Structure formats: structure tokens, C-alpha cells
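pls design
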């Protein structure tokens, strides 16, 4: 049966497909939620819609107002899609180094993009966003890194979709952490369903989420885009108590996997999905051998966006030529 027509593009956010990974162990299926099926082609459409609708409901902003967000890209696109349909203006403060495709898409959706120097990092972008908000009336900075609505969006939408599709038979949730909104929303829902559900946070080698679990992480640069942190104190949504383990994946393994996923399984996904897939398969292998005990023999992960967004960075070139 076909779905009736949607009134506008915002109604098409969410209800993305959940697909079995071919490379998973036979007795422990791994399922990936394909978030590039959203209208802005990433997981961040969910928080764009959810945060703006909630802030309008609560009167934090009114129609005609301006949303200002420091963002590396996908969140800007998600917010821009929602802002356009909800009669809000959008301004994004983006450090220069992030992918040009994302900045072009934000502008195409009617948003204004302001660049800050790469050397000032996300911190510089956050500061500039707040300065702009102070100058502009009826403006709001959702601030995905500290806004509980980010986690809530996944608790209310991503998690129930997964549990509905699998009729509750979820043994482990494994997902990449940028803001950690995705994983924390899934983890909270999972632990309420069954407190023994395994929760794995995925980050690139060189990122410092592992230090929150008492593991000596060596800080370094990484090419995997969208996940990881150099300063866990700024990732206010991440709750170490909700996480069993932080799983580190090297750039090389993430890159090999994203290429394998395209070649063997038909997934056009980017590096954070490559890392998530590697980590989810490792967890499934440990469940299979009995090393990890979980309530159901299954692992769920999230593929946050599409590789098309990173073609200018040579995502499908050789590892050494990939400009992450
Ligand atoms: N992958 C990509 C490509 C992303 O843009 C993001 C968001 N930064 C993530 C993964 C991680 O999602 P979250 O912020 O919910 O942890």
C-alpha cells in the first residue's frame, strides 16, 4: 500500500529504512538505519525538525525570527530544511575547513552562511553565533552540543522506529558520537526497555571520548567527519554512565569499510557510517563468541549520511589521497 501524499517536505523526515548488513555474522544480525533517506540526506534532519518545532511551541522563538547555529554542516542543512517550512530565517556559522557541498546546500535552502577561520575550530564558530544572537532580535541559538532536545529527538523518533521494526529484539546499540545526541537518545530508550542492552559509542582513533571511561586516549587528528571530540567537556549531552564502552576505529578501517559497503552492499555512505559499521560488526562478533552477553543476539547501528556529500574530498580515492 502506498503512503498518502505528504503536505510538505518536513513530513518526510524520519521513518528511514532499517537494513540488514550482509557482512554480519550469521547468528548475530547487524541492522543499519539509513539516515540519508531524509530530505536533507542526513540524520540531522530529525533534530532540525524536532528542535525548531519544540522551540516554536515553547515560545523560545516566533515565526519570522532567526535561528543561528554553529555547525559543521549536516545540522545546518537539517535546520535549514525545517526553518524554510516553519517561516524562520537561518544563519549558520561554519569553520572554513568543512565540506563545500554542505555549505552550498545550506545556501540553496535559503540560509546565510558565515565562515570562521579553521584555526579557531568549533569554539570560534560557537562564540561568533552567540555574538550574532546578541545583536539580532527574536533570534535563538539551538546549540546542538548542549540542547537536550537533540537527544530527545532520537529518543522520540529514531529509537521507537528501530524497536518497532525489530519488535523490541535489540541486543546492542552501537553508534558514532559527534554531539552524542543520536547515541544518547537510543541508549536512554534501550536501557528503559532492558537495562542489560549493550551500548557502544563509536569514535575515531585520536578522539577523546574514551577518556570519559577512564581509558588513556592519545589525542590525534582524524579524517573521519562528524564524530569524535578533542574536548569532551564541550559535548555536554554525552553521558558516560549510559555507555558500556567507547569503541575506537582507525581512519583506515573506516575508509576501507565505506568502500566495501559501496562495492559489496550498495550503500553510498560516508566515513562516520564506515566507522559505525566496523564497530557494530566487531560487537556482533564478540556476541557470537559469547564474550559479550546481551538480551537478544542482534546489533543496531546508524549510517548518518551519504558519501555524495564528500566527493570533493576524494572520499572514494585511495586512503592516502582522501582529504578527510
Ligand atoms: N556522522 C555525521 C556525518 C554527522 O554529521 C554527525 C553529526 N555531527 C554524526 C555522525 C554524529 O551524530 P551525533 O551528533 O548525533 O552524535
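designed seq:
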Amino acid at each position: 500500500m502506498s503512503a498518502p501524499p505528504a503536505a510538505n517536505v518536513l513530513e518526510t523526515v524520519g521513518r528511514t529504512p532499517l537494513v540488514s548488513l550482509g557482512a554480519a555474522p550469521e547468528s548475530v544480525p547487524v541492522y543499519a538505519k539509513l539516515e540519508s533517506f531524509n530530505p536533507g540526506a542526513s540524520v540531522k534532519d530529525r533534530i532540525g525538525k524536532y528542535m525548531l518545532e519544540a522551540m516554536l511551541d515553547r515560545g523560545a522563538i516566533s515565526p519570522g525570527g532567526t535561528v543561528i547555529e554553529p555547525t559543521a554542516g549536516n545540522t545546518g542543512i537539517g535546520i535549514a530544511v525545517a526553518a524554510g517550512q516553519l517561516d524562520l530565517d537561518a544563519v549558520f556559522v561554519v569553520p572554513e575547513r568543512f565540506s563545500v557541498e554542505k555549505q552550498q546546500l545550506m545556501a540553496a535552502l535559503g540560509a546565510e552562511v558565515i565562515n570562521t577561520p579553521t584555526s579557531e575550530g568549533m569554539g570560534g564558530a560557537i562564540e561568533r553565533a552567540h555574538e550574532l544572537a546578541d545583536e539580532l532580535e527574536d533570534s535563538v541559538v539551538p546549540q546542538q552540543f548542549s540542547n537536550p532536545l537533540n537527544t530527545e529527538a532520537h529518543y522520540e523518533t529514531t529509537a521507537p522506529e528501530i524497536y518497532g521494526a525489530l519488535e523490541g529484539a535489540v541486543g546492542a546499540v552501537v553508534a558514532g558520537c559527534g554531539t552524542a545526541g543520536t547515541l544518547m537518545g537510543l541508549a536512554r530508550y534501550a536501557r528503559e526497555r532492558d537495562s542489560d542492552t549493550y551500548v557502544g559509542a563509536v569514535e575515531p582513533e585520536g578522539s577523546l571520548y574514551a577518556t570519559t571511561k577512564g581509558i588513556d586516549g592519545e589525542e590525534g587528528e582524524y579524517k573521519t567527519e562528524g564524530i569524535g571530540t578533542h574536548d569532551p567537556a564541550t559535548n555536554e549531552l554525552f553521558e558516560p554512565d549510559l555507555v558500556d564502552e567507547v569503541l575506537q576505529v582507525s581512519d583506515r578501517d573506516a575508509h576501507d569499510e565505506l568502500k566495501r559497503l559501496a562495492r559489496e552492499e550498495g550503500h553510498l555512505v560516508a566515513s562516520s557510517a564506515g566507522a559505525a559499521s566496523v564497530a557494530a560488526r566487531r560487537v556482533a562478533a564478540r556476541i557470537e563468541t559469547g564474550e559479550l552477553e546481551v538480551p537478544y543476539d542482534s546489533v543496531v547501528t546508524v549510517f548518518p549520511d551519504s558519501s555524495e556529500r564528500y566527493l570533493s574530498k576524494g572520499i572514494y580515492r585511495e586512503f592516502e589521497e582522501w582529504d578527510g
